[in-house]
Amino acid sequence: MNEGIVDRVRKIIDHYGISVSAFANALGVQRSSVSHILSGRNNPSLDFVMKLMQAYPEVNLYWLLNGLGNFLKDDNIPIAPTPEKSKNTVDNPSLSDVGDEILTPNNHRPTQIVIFYSDGSFASFNPKKSKDL
């Protein structure tokens, strides 16, 4: 069974076209941990599987653990409808007058925005200094 999960971890790495190092970075584990799992030296731990599911939530956990089902989660699974009351009603009348404007305190302005990607890379943006911010 262990060899099967190793093959499935390899399939995930191949599917995303990333290196073992980038995969380890995305999971937040050391590269040696992934290498030991791929070589069969160590079994994947629960912590490893949970980090994999957090980094790649579209991967089907049931498939990863036992090889059954689809590689990616099925988006066609019906979701139970929410009750009508929760769709567009407001129970608190004072909240119905709230507009769509964004309120930010004058002394709190963003100085840097960092976006982290699943392949371990990132992009950094520095907003222009403006009175409108």
Automatic annotation (TrEMBL):
CDD domains for the chain: HTH_XRE
Residue ranges occupied by any HTH cro/C1-type domain in the UniProt entry: 9-64
Xref: SUPFAM superfamilies: lambda repressor-like DNA-binding domains (SSF47413)
Pfam family, one: HTH_3
Chain intervals for the UniProt region annotation (Disordered): 81-106
InterPro entries for the chain: Cro/C1-type_HTH, Lambda_DNA-bd_dom_sf
SMART domains cross-referenced by the UniProt entry: HTH_XRE
Coiled coil: none
PROSITE patterns linked: HTH_CROC1
The protein's name in its UniProt record: Helix-turn-helix
